[in-house]
Write a structure and sequence with these properties.
This is Glycosyltransferase subfamily 4-like N-terminal domain-containing protein. With 485 residues, the chain is an alpha/beta fold. The protein has 16 helices and 15 strands. The strands form three sheets. Strands 4-3-2-5-6-7-8 form a seven-stranded parallel sheet, with helices on both faces. Strands 11-10-9-12-13-14 form a six-stranded parallel sheet, sandwiched between helices. The chain has a two-stranded antiparallel ribbon with strand order 1-15. The relative contact order is 0.12. The structure holds 2-acetamido-2-deoxy-beta-D-glucopyranose (NAG) (2 copies). One 2-acetamido-2-deoxy-beta-D-glucopyranose binds next to helix 7.
């Protein structure tokens, strides 16, 4: 072998060796990193290096340092609270109709539960229909309707009533539902918490998906253009003024993250408390489900029954479900879709023929029948602001869910693949998810549903939500209550 080739070969050998060493080194670094990452990922969110974890795995520490949902913690609802609080609440509306919105339902459920625990609650809200207001003669919560037009919120008037009441006896804690109390007043109150039910950042994200489902020949609506135009300035404004509120309650894990990371609110002032639904109203009751099926005329040969409920409007994703189910029903003549709720898409669904049952809005008894009659609850929403109550109701009723893969949904509801299916909000992906559910069959879906029920019963009960809020209010009232357990 000529000398120069030997040298070249030796050089090459050396280079291989160097490469090999680098490769080993790289491999080791990667391995160490992956292990670290794996450990990091496998810890439940919030348990990440935040605080001391005791031997039995229970969390201990300053609750203000917790970045996970407080619903994960155990609170003893059997013993009375360590202190009875006087709590003022600002809410633009108080539910007086039979069909209140999500935010009002949240407020009503929460304050009824806190009053039942013995706290003294005063709600400051807009005028109701006089007849309704007269019928609300509770002593706790006390509802202070300011004067003026029904449902026309004027915070100055509410603030006056609050000051009057506060001058008799100081409130321990003040809570505002979103911006009912604007920051110029709120910033004076160190013992105030605000619960955010939908923020501009989430509106921006949902605007993106709403526009992406537009067909090529479909114009943007004027309302939508206005929203687009207003959202970015609104977001910037929010980032500037949100920090003026002392304590923030995010009602989803993802909202908590956005408040900390995008809105830059100090972590110790951001607390995640998921909403709750009434565990007595939403129960797993297969017999009721079967009865409901036969009442509405679903044949016993049905292989799969899907359900959707809520307002039947475009931004709840009904165009997606309409397209996807049109395809699915041809391939699966024994699959049915039950549609509960009202809105423009109701009549469109009727066009799909006998595999779709459009029921209109349901009273609580029929709603229970509805949830129990279905195999999967579908919610293709394009606008998940806050936490969708219907998803929690379905899970509480023991049903797996199929929902858009927004961070709020993946971060707080479908936190385990077992709980159902998430899909990017477009008709093709929804169709794929529907096919997958159809191929799994109802026994498999039933097991998923039971896993949902277990999780919901631990996390989303109204009682759990109320106890978590109670603990937050105690912590705001006196720091010694911030230390858990
Ligand atoms: C968009 O916002 C700007 C500034 O706020 C306003 O002048 C303009 O009229 C808005 N355009 C539309 C289409 O709403
Ligand atoms: C807070 O609570 C602790 C323990 O109950 C008590 O010792 C302390 O005086 C309280 N502080 C205030 C400011 O009320």
């Amino acid at each position: 072998m000529p000398p120069h080739r030997t040298i070249a070969a030796a050089k090459q050998k050396k280079m291989y060796a160097v490469h090999f060493h680098r490769a080993v080194l790289l491999f080791c670094i990667t391995a160490v990193c992956s292990v670290t990452v794996l450990i990091y990922i496998q810890l439940p969110p919030g348990f990440r290096l935040v605080n001391f974890i005791s031997n039995d795995g229970a969390w201990e520490g300053d609750l203000r340092g917790a970045d996970f949902a407080w619903n994960k913690l155990y609170f003893n609802g059997d013993s009375p609270p360590p202190a009875v609080l006087r709590i003022a609440v600002f809410s633009k509306k108080w539910p007086t109709s039979s069909d209140p919105g999500g935010m009002e339902r949240h407020a009503q459920t929460l304050y009824a539960a806190l009053a039942a625990r013995g706290h003294h609650i005063h709600v400051f809200t807009s005028p109701a229909n006089p007849l309704v207001a007269a019928s609300l003669s509770y002593t706790n919560p006390v509802i202070h309707f300011h004067d003026g037009e029904p449902n026309n919120w004027q915070y100055e008037k509410a603030w006056e009533m609050f000051e009057e009441e506060d001058s008799h006896r100081k409130f321990d804690v003040i809570h505002t539902e979103s911006v009912a109390l604007p920051f110029r007043l709120a910033e004076r109150l160190p013992n105030l918490a605000v619960s955010w039910h939908g923020i501009a950042y989430e509106i921006m994200q949902s605007s993106i998906f709403q526009d992406l489902i537009r067909k090529p020949d479909e114009p943007q609506s004027n309302d939508f253009i206005r929203t687009l135009n207003e959202t970015l300035p609104k977001l910037l404004k929010e980032i500037r003024f949100f920090s003026k509120y002392a304590h923030h309650v995010a009602i989803t894990d993802s909202c908590g993250e956005v408040l900390r990371n995008v809105y830059q609110i100090p972590s110790r002032r951001v607390h995640v408390i998921l909403n709750g639904v009434d565990q007595r109203t939403f129960v797993d009751d297969p017999e009721t489900g079967l009865k409901f099926r036969s009442q509405i005329g679903i044949p016993q040969t049905a292989t799969l029954v899907l359900g959707v409920s809520g307002r039947l409007v475009r931004d709840k994703g009904h165009p997606l479900l309409f397209d996807a189910f049109s395809k699915l029903k041809v391939r699966h003549p024994d699959v049915y879709l039950i549609v509960a709720g009202t809105g423009p898409w109701g009549s469109r669904y009727r066009e799909l023929g006998s595999q779709v049952l459009v029921l209109g809005s349901l009273d609580p008894v029929r709603l229970k029948g509805f949830y129990n009659a279905i195999d999967v609850f579908v919610n293709p929403t394009l606008r998940p602001q806050g936490l969708d109550l219907t998803l929690m109701e379905a899970m509480m009723s023991g049903k797996p869910i199929m929902a858009s893969n927004f961070p709020s949904i993946k971060g707080s509801l479908v936190v385990d693949d077992e709980f159902g299916f998430t899909f990017p909000p477009n008709a093709d992906s929804l169709y794929e998810a529907l096919e997958l559910a159809a191929s799994e069959g109802k026994e498999r879906l039933r097991r998923r549903g039971l896993a949902c029920k277990k999780y919901a019963a631990a996390m989303f009960t109204a009682g759990k939500m109320a106890l978590a809020y109670e603990r937050l209010f105690l912590c705001i009232y006196n720091e010694s209550y911030c230390f858990y357990p």
